[in-house]
Amino acid sequence: MTSRTWWKEAVVYQIYPRSFRDSDGDGVGDLKGITQKLDYIQQLGLDAVWLNPVYKSPNDDNGYDISDYYDIQAEFGTMRDFDELLSGLHKRGIKLIMDLVVNHSSDEHPWFVESKKSKSNPYRDFYFWKPGKNGGAPNNWPSFFGGSAWELDITTGEYYLHLFSKKQPDLNWENPALRLEVQKLMKFWLDKGVDGLRLDVISAISKRTVFIDTDTSDFNETIRKYYANGPRLKEFIAEMRSTVWDNYDCMTVGEGPGITPENSKDYLDSEKGLNMIFHFGHMFLDQGEGGRFDPVSWSMKDFKEVFKKWDDAFSKNGWGSVFLGNHDFSRMVSRWGDDKNYWEKSSKLLCTLVLSMRGTPFIFQGDEIGMTNIELKSIKESADIETQNGWREAQKKGVPEQQFLRTVNYAGRDNARTPVQWDDSAQAGFTAGLPWMKVNPNKTSISVKSQQSDIESVLSYFKHMIALRKAHPLLVYGSYLPIETEHEKLFVYSREWDKEKWIIVLNFSPENINFPTVLLMGKSVVMISNYDGIIGKVIRPWEAVVYRVVGKN
Ligand code: ISL
């Protein structure tokens, strides 16, 4: 039986501060804005907040390009505001998980400013510098954000590696001096009382330093084979664990493309690894060879298979996290549900899935009220470097703007970054000024205010589902067993713990599906459902039901 710990039992709420709430009218969300909403966060019934980066940054990648790990980005407020937020969360029994971006820094970080000055600079080896080859980059690696993963710096005539934007140079973890700096900055935040760390792109911190060309045009395969899971990864994680994490009661969750069910054990060693990882198996199902901007169709068969494979991996080793959306992906109801014809039912169904699976649930801000994708009318409206660079690359291939825009409106990260819709006022109660990113016009029908006192709302259902999970350890520690059904769109699984058995039935379709009553030959009690009343013979469009089996089954 797995050991009981807070981060296994927690439900985590992800806050993208830029879009959560603006307290000073500059149009950008800030720390005070979050503090002003702590009662709302507490009423959701959450246990922890994952805060996307709030450190000083030029914002090339909205904070994932850090220029000072020890100070707060001015737009977000001051260190005093941070301390006030942390204390406000702790007073409410809510823990804080900070986002730590140490695969790369900003090119405006003093380390890089020094490093680029000369080949003999003491900070030169804080980054990866290579001479060019055949008049071009040292190898053919593509960046996550389009173009080459190498940038020529004319000062020394060498190229530096940046797996993401050229303003995000990769840090050289081969250098013990860099690793020592990372240990110091982690201790700084943990000494302040931070309860956990989400480690950005942890899968890529160990580089294959021979930097040979990728032999595949499939971007996600290039990630797996060349960027992620490098030779010293386990060693670097173990070193952070022994020098820092083991000295604090802190939770660590690793993020990173390239982590697979097969290699997840390398990240999750109980003595020397991370506590958890995010798995992206389902998040790449609709990405073709070209990655995000090369969408392909996906199937529920594959979707279910991904969850089974990952649960198998985690049941043997470590602990997983469950999410269907975050700041890097489209809104979950637009991507996996039906935000046009079954917005309410599918929002509730997806919430049921995330909160009834084995693994720590991570809920992205706004998903608790069913926020949807936004429709950008032009690429200029995008505030995301990945989209802007993607458009630059698409233009080189002659892709028309409207065609690329359709892809961006389906898969782009802007979808997740529109301001949280607190009410139906001009800027949805997000800001008194002009928002950094436009508010979704559907704030008139989708907002916290319009749902807060409606017992049938997505928000109310979300709170009930959280309360159900908190009241029943079966949903946390119970086994997970998918149940085969005749219909591909029916996702059915059981959770069992301490002689109790629950069955979760999710209809990922707009059709009525004959309900396999064989599943419930015995008697059962409905614990929660997104429809009134249960027909029992037919599972209705986008119906979600959680049954507790009471009779013999
Ligand atoms: O790999 C991906 C599929 O497109 C994305 O999930 C994402 O770019 C990747 O997982 C890393 O994301 C993290 O690091 C990036 C930052 O832009 C993302 O916001 C962050 O979540 C670089 O720091």
Work out the count of structural domains: 3
The percent of residues in helical segments reads: 25-40%
- Indicate the overall shape: globular
Distance between the termini: 24 Å
Count of runs of 4 or more consecutive helical residues:
17
The CATH superfamily title of the largest domain? Glycosidases
Describe the sheet with the most strands: 8 strands, parallel, barrel
Q: What small molecules accompany the polymer chains?
A: 6-O-alpha-D-glucopyranosyl-D-fructose
- Which structural category do the helix and sheet elements fall into? alpha/beta
Query: How many extended strands?
Result: 22
Q: Kindly provide the name of the CATH class of the largest domain.
A: Alpha Beta
**Content of β-strand:** 15-25%
Mean pLDDT comes to 95
* Backbone CA Rg: 23 Å
What is the name of the CATH architecture of the largest domain? Answer: Alpha-Beta Barrel
**What ranges have pLDDT less than 50 throughout 5 or more consecutive residues?**
none
Annotated CATH topology of the largest domain: TIM Barrel
Strand order of the largest sheet: 1-2-5-9-10-11-14-15
